[in-house]
Amino acid sequence: MRHEIVLLVLILMLLVFEIFTKTEQKKSLIYLALGLFAIHTISGFFQSTDGVLFGGSYRTNELIHFFKNILNVGVLIILLQSVDWLEKVAHYNKLPEFFILLFSSLIGMYFMISSGDFLMFYIGLELSTLPLVALVAYNSADIKGNEAAIKLILSAALASAISLFGMTFIYATGGSIFFESIATQLTVSPLAILGLIFFFSGVAFKISLAPFHFWTADVYEGAPIGITSYLSVISKGAAIFILMTILFKVLPVLSVQWKDIVWGVAVLTMFVGNLFALRQNNMKRYLAFSSIAQAGFILMGIINAEQLGASTVIFFVMVYIFSNLGAFGVVQAISNATGKENMDDYTGLYRTNPMLSLVMLLSLFSLAGIPPVAGFFGKFFLYTAAAQKGYYLLVFLAVINVTISLYYYLLPVRAMFLRKSDDAIPYFKSPVFMRIGLLLAIAGIFVLGLYSPVYNYIEELSKLL
Amino acid sequence: MDILTLFVVVPVLTVIALFFAKDLKQSRLISVVGMTVQLGMAINLVFAYFKERASNTDIMVFTRDLEWFKTFNIHYNIGVDGISVALILLTSIVVLAGVFISWKMEDLPKEFFISLIVLASGVFGFFISIDLFTMFVFYEIAVIPMYLLIGIWGSGPREYSAMKLTLMLMGASAILLVGILGIYFNSNADGGPLTFNILQIGQVNIPEAAQNLFFPLTFIGFATLGAMFPFHTWSPDGHASAPTAVSMLHAGVLMKLGGYGVFRVAMFLLPVGAQNWSTFFIILSVIGVVYGALAAIKQTDLKYINAYSSVSHLGMVLFALLMLNKTAWNGAILQSLSHGFMTALFFALIGMIYGRTHTRDAYKMGGLLKTMPFISIIYVIAGLASLGLPGMSGFVAEMNIFAGAFQHPDTFHRVVSILTVSAIVITAVYILRIVGVMLMGPIKDPHFEHLPKETWYERVGIYLLMIPILGIGIAPLWLSNMIMDSIQPFIERLQ
User: Fold this and answer.
1) Contact of B311 with B295, CB cutoff 8 Å
2) Residues of the domain holding B282
3) Which domain, by its residues, includes A224?
4) What pTM was estimated for this model as a whole?
5) How many A/B residue pairs have CB atoms within 8 Å?
6) Contact B166 A410 (CB under 8 A)
7) Among B176, B181, B241, which would you mutate to test the A interface (most chain A Cβ atoms within 10 Å of its Cβ)?
């Protein structure tokens, strides 16, 4: 419970500080919030106790605690990368709201992954989504942002309604909303399968699996880049974790059915994400489709349905957080400095901004799954998880997709490294927080892959799922 | 630190040092020092290997085993036998020669040498690995720098060629990955634990159904890098667009990973699959041999000629491997080595010629023997080695291949062997014709009358490659012995 309480205190502190800060000094709230969140992140790494609260609605153990830590690190990197943007673009009178909304959404994620019944799960899901809608429209003068927010709220409302519908079916057949009781009482019946399908579709919206991905590209493009990063890594990561928990632990009776669904959705998601990414020019849309495709890969670990699958999924989510934040960080740095967000603008970037290009290169290589960066290990383990259960055809389709994805992951590389341009973005010095953020992402990309104790630790923890 | 890990550590250290280099002079100095150390270590390894072999009868020597990812039983597991030692020596020579040939790399020199040496470290790592996962990691590390090397420093349609090459090779490696996973999940067929260790899987009899399924995946995965027909199309475009040193390294070393992988992984671990599939792949490899040679005749661009000639020569390596007997395999390894030195030499010479005449069209040049005697004479020697003249490395290799091929008494093998032999005649045609057109005869262009002489660094690069070609040709026995001993355990798997 420590994560939730500390973050709640943090939100209250920000509210209080805001009252006592003069308008001219509101900027200092950025550093205050950043500092407090950094302390929160570090404090998360101290030992915690397992436990159950509210009669089983809320549970926590070492694995859940660890996953919350991963989310914290991700959010910390996002905040570091957003400092510059907040200073420049944001309206100072709305500054605390940015942090308060972001942290509320994060608390929602905490509750969601800690949930022990469908009620808590639903509360967490809503709490994590609603503040995000406000954040997407944070820059209220931006028409695209507003459009994105409307799209997000409509599809999110639909999605949560659908998954709520599915939960009622599961309740009707399982006789309980508590995960543990459902797991023992549920039997295979058409109603239960229908419940599974509805529930899965609702969560699939959140993870933007095909065919529930249509909101993704528009929302990613319209939202501020920091929020886009948050949507694509934190929100997605948390939803995957809870989906995995529920499929593995609550609905094992229906595993035959949900494995079929996951198989089909995985293949569809990979192909849709990869094929649509081929022709994108806006970097945010490009990374949106890339992240759709990545979610398809993650399903290969879920289909394993055992401890190996769980550990590979959690590991890959970690790798994915760092890789994607590296890429989004560079997009944000360039957007802050020049306002340019298209791939064409990156032409000749290496010759003017070598370090940024290098970070982008490594992040894209990690997303594409090229060694020695961590993405390769993450993907390899996911293949292994699927192949262990004999899903060779799925692995084969996945490697075809990896080859397709390599093409578009090399496109920015081509623009940055291979081409020269007279009007390339001139050299600029990134602010210090941005550099720390990028450095953390790159360090994560290297350490996760080559330093095997991280994976072994996750493997050990995933027994607790 | 053990003697083999250093082969990866030294390039990595060189790359790190290169990050701090400021200009061309510093970059090339660092690269030369690093790669000379590497060559010294390779020569030392040959002697150390002979010494160790006298007392040690294991398949692999200098082994070292460190656990990496416990769950999957992935190890950092290294060791060498005679074949890998020979290929390591080849690699270190070609890389050093490549560094000398790139002495005047003006555009982004630091990045060029970094990419080149990252590629080399992948190749070295590949040759020392005896764990499938580690091997695969190094394989990909060796392939991906090609994209930057061709894309940034290449010529002609460089973006197209770089993308084509990368996608085809990475696509092949993706297929290979399925094969490797298939082998991994069948490695407990005899009741042991799942493992990626090649030597341990070598003791296991994987069920025939699985072998038939995964052999073609593994074979195609590796053989694409060995330019097997019809997956060879990346090679001519890639070579033609690549800068000189990269063509050298690619044709000389990187393509050898294909044959080595087929031999070490596909055939050793899936012997039954190899026998069942051999007819099909023999046909493909023969088409590659003949088609590559015929295509080379039609070309006028020197780089395309050599690229197609590589398709033909490496098709012969695959052909020899598919003969599944000791003599032919010995020939295959020798051919890999000989082709490695010879093609690297060819590409180095083409780079030098192009640097002076600014054309690669053989029919626009003429009488180069009069204006560039040194380069021309070496070109003739390389050509003679390529068509298998006795006394050069190519002859020894091809002799062994055909001696092995004719050990099969059946009609099918006879026919394909004769077809493959015919490719040697075609090779003679295109080599001698180019020599005639380009080097002999009158000088066609007055600009070519006064061309700059070869420089000292070019000479060093050339000599580095010349010595082994003649060395293998004149005294093949020490090498042959080293290889033969190492082939023995692999051939026993097939019987």
Assistant:
1) yes
2) 6-494
3) 2-464
4) 0.93
5) 83
6) yes
7) B181
